[in-house]
Amino acid sequence: MTALGVLKEYWGYDSFRPMQEDIINEALEGRDVLALLPTGGGKSVCFQVPAMMREGIALVITPLIALMKDQVQQLRERGIKALAVHAGMNGREVELTLNNAAYGDFKFLYLSPERLKTRMFQMYASALKVNFIVVDEAHCISQWGYDFRPSYLDIGELRSRIDAPVIALTATATPLVVEDIMSHLRFKEKNVIKAGFERENLSYIVRRCQDKIGQITSVCRGVSGSGIVYVRNRRKAEEISEALKAEGISAGFYHAGLGQQSRSERQEKWRSGETRVMVCTNAFGMGIDKADVRFVVHADLPESPEAYFQEAGRAGRDGRPSWAVLLWNGTDIARLKQIEDVSFPSLEYIEDIYQKVHVFYGIPYEQGIGRMLKFSLEEFCKHFSLQQAPAYYAVKYLEREGHWTLSEDMDIQTRIKISVDRTELYNIDLPDPSMPLILETLMRTYTGIFSFATPIDEEYVASRCGMSRERLRQMLYLLGVNHVVKYIPEDHANVLYIIHDRLYPGNVKVSPERYRLLRSTYGERVQTMQEYVQMDEGCRTAFLLKYFGQEETAPCGRCDLCREGKADAEKTQEQLRKWIESRGGEYTLDELSAAMGPGKSAYTRVLREMIDGGSVPPPKEQ
Questions:
Q1: How many CA atoms lie within 13 A of 82 on its CB side?
Q2: Which is it for the CA torsion 100, 104, 110, 115, positive or negative?
Q3: Fewest CB within a 10 Å sphere: which of 135, 141, 462, 477?
């Protein structure tokens, strides 16, 4: 079957988007390929289609657990067998998943880069019949990238054990990062396919203001259709949502502190149009395929052009006119500079946090590898009388150095282990008549439930038993109280995954060179965002595209600066025309300069265009 045939059969599309087919063809020819596609450019199709056309399984490496789960679910809904290994799974679950990937007829295995060095994955790696190594968010492999993750460097080593072409994908990479990606992924030859980042329907607008809620309200009223408002913190998401609702605007808020069910419900209401505007942190938006977003507002200044470009690009994926509005004031600039100081505590402090985390969980030296820990920053800091902000960034820096991974706001499924022997189970006097049906359903659905705490799908079990989810939870709780099952309710927590045994003081890797590099590049990105918002001439689209390596870009004609420049040019044209007519068409450049005053470069440029267009005569020789 052809690539287009696979696209039609499984995805229902009659044609590819720009560059998708070129990327797919390169992969099918067995060549390593780096695909640079803008947000909403359809990156997943670029590896899913060729993987369906080759025998074996595609190994998809991505750091985004929410996106991983979402894509696996979407593939399954299309009748494509897919698996995922992510934080929150116990050793038995991981082994079962890898066994299925190696010996079943699955087409996709999603996993985080940290899993590549685990003993379990390495045991199964040689048995996996990998057709493609897919690297999503490939910019994470570059120390120059805005989201560097050291575990991505292990992918290059993986290539020495798995002989399969690489499909690397990213939406945001500067020329320096592009070179870094291909080098670290050991491309056999350089091969970049880059779609133009221009979005001809997207207008970039920047407004300096103090009353941000008033500006957001004006945007919501002035632009029809659905929108997203990005904010920095959870409290502000809730406050702005309430302020918009008070103005009669349909709005909701979304952040990672909400429970899984609440987040799903809010997301679905926004996606269906029941909620018009979603006010959210950057936890919202990744992997959401809503084409008719008419505006994206940033109520706070983002820390990097990469983050801003990606989030703003969620507007107008259907090709219709849309707006990306950024609101800022002097406080935003000062805040970003403060964040830089907090984000990079001293190396001595960082190493101290490494030891304190192990002490907090009672992990002795030379132990701890592979442990998954529920990590409460608040409790940790309270225990050691620490400030939360520098402690958090120290934990994140240690993640960059490869000591552990922190998966924030993870949804941990309900787990059940039947504590009673199977033969004795039917002799127990259960307090509720629905309990035998629940136990029977659990035994029939989940193998190993007598041996270890097994994750269950509450919605599925409840529907099979003909009861509500709340009723099921009550019964499971009572079964736990009666010692029939071990009941571990679903949870929502940060999970810290320890990559290696605890190190002795002085042996903790906290590279000073990397520290200086990361701090320097952070400062450069903040400076770029400051330059972007403080522009008073030029083109905002061209500025962003130049940052990502598109040097020769014509003014877009749509951003606020282009529109202001056009209005100024039209005003200047009218002034020039009237003055030249008053002179009977006879004038010199010196006379014109004396009459027009300052701003010679602006009006001489307009005059040249008018002369070329034949609307005014040229000046006389002086």
A1: 23
A2: positive
A3: 477
